Amino acid sequence: MPVDPRVHRHPPSSYHSFRNGSHSRTMTTSPSSRKKGRRLRRRSIVLIAMGVIVAVIATVVTVIVVNLPDDLEIGRLSQKSNLYATTSDGSSHLLASFYDQNRVEVAFDAISPFVKDAATSGEDPGFYEHGGVDIWGTVTGIVATVFTGTTRGGSSITQQYVKNVLVQKCEALTGETERADCYNTATEASPDRKLKEMSLAIGLEKKYSKDEILRQYLNITGFGGSVYGIEAAASYYFNTSAANVTLPQAASLIAIVNNPVKFQLDKPDSPTNGAANGYADNKVRRDYILDAMLEHGKISQADHDAAIDTPIEPTITEPSTGCQTAGGSAYFCDLVVHTLRTDPAFGKDAETRLANFRLGGYQVHTTLDLDLQDAAEVTMKENVPDTFPGWDLGGVITSVQVGTGRVLDMTQNKDYSQDPDVQATGANYSGINYNTDLDQGGSNGFQTGSTYKVFTLAEWLNAGHSLADSVSSRPRSNWGTFEDSCNGPQNYGTAFNPKNDSSSEDGSYSSALQSTIQSINTGFIGMAKELDLCAIRKTAEAFGVHRADGNALEQGAASVLGTNEIAPLTMAAAYAGIANNGVTCTPIVIDKIIGPDGAEIPAPASNCTQSVSTDVAAAMSYAMQRVLTSGTAAASYRATTPRVPMIGKTGTTDDNKDTWMSGASTKVATVVGVVNVSGDGKDQRMTYFDSGQAATARHRMWPDVMSVANKKYGGDSFAVPPRSMTR
Description:
By secondary structure, this protein is α+β, with helices and mostly antiparallel strands. Strands 4-3-5-17-18 form a 5-stranded mixed beta sheet.
């Protein structure tokens, strides 16, 4: 007989029978309980089904990942580059730091265990057990990504590190568009990217130990804004090091990693994560991490409770960045930066140099002598004001070591800034380095006045003349025709009528020695009249002299008196060449570069060439010593102590708009100038600063610098010239 399907063969589970003595009673559940039971059964079935689906997906994902490329090339991390000067005791003094990303890479043992445990507990508790991928968390993330279009969590620390590496490769690119495209590819919300990330993470764990991966992760990850890596984060947020952070500080820092914009601690006015509410957002995440550290046995209950009770109190410490932090040495710093960006020693082409500079990690030890630099800064402040009514006033000092080309000091009478807004609001600010060429961040140069006459003196001696030889030096308006082997004979008619500084210099004949000692204009024009204007220009070029604007040196008769606009640093190197027996060395600003890997990189080298013969250089020095002892530079000589043998030459441009004092010992050459940067300027002999007459400021500053140089470096006697050159 067929069984009626409506008849239960066994009592339904909703029934329960029991006996109590001779009585029996049957009880039934309510309809609501039956519905609840059915829901629980359906939910269990769904969960089991989802588990099976996830397991299948996980298996498929694993197969796919295993067959993807797993070789990740890890490049350099972007780090700070530091510029140093050497103190008198040999220690290094930080001038400035530069970075696109504020990062200092540190070793594993330089990171507090609190930081490591906070990272693993909060971000990846199974870090030391899995093979690079938290497969269940990642698959969940992939599923969420597919359905939401937004990348979700689930990534292991190794996977996060892989993503950061790919992003850093993008940051190293120099082109904005190229960099943006690369970044979008590295961070796109797609299962494909996630799978590749997993494969690379697995491959990474085959190459590196867990500790090394954790170290690299903590060094690469972002902590908000331009702060990258745990060392920079500890310094920036808490004014400490990665090795010395406390437990609550470590948890707060690792909290930032989860969402830097939401959890960073440098926005005290934030309504959701600011000082008023105790940085509430960060605290929630911090306390979650502390709970996880307790759960995984990384900290004790007592330490956990004490950390939970600790308020979040950041000590924001802005890192120094850019040359403005170098104070009075900022303009020297600016020249170092230009050198790094342009010199082939720092990269074979402009693109490579820019990439190197952006990646950073270099320790650059400069040539700056802090003793001379301090003297230059002090005397500049004392003698030349930042600004002056009706005058775009400039003051410059720079020194070069004789025989090496090493720039020892460089300063000017302005506060350094590359901020256009700051410059617009204060005439005491300038981003232009008055000491250097235009293509080195400098100006178009300045007329050098009579300091340029020494190159005519050099050619006079080159041509076989003696210092005792005289020329017609009578002032006149028609000097006749000058020889110019480059451009042909030059005749200026009656338009060329150079004057002397005083009537006592208007004799009919002057010797080369007398013209040099007294800086007689017409005496040097008379010498040039017997020479080749082109040869004079070439002799100047032999000393490395060139126009600051990059154009060719002018070589007309007037140029003999110093009408070419030349950078002070160029003239300092030339005078160092005279003092170095005629061997001129190009200026250099870097002694040593240590690369990111700790290896030394060859620094830009000075190129030394024989500008004139040693005999000619000796005769030039013979005359230029007398400029100091009994000529126009006597005021500088008298104020210098200790005195060593020194050479020098003064210079004054038309209407006394620019005044110069240039000179050297056998160890150090220094150029000092008070100049008109633009506009009409002032007659310096009619203008007074608080320190005295503007025209004599050079004779107050040059001795201050050279006194320090002489005391520190000393000075030898100059070579004696052949008698034929002095008689």
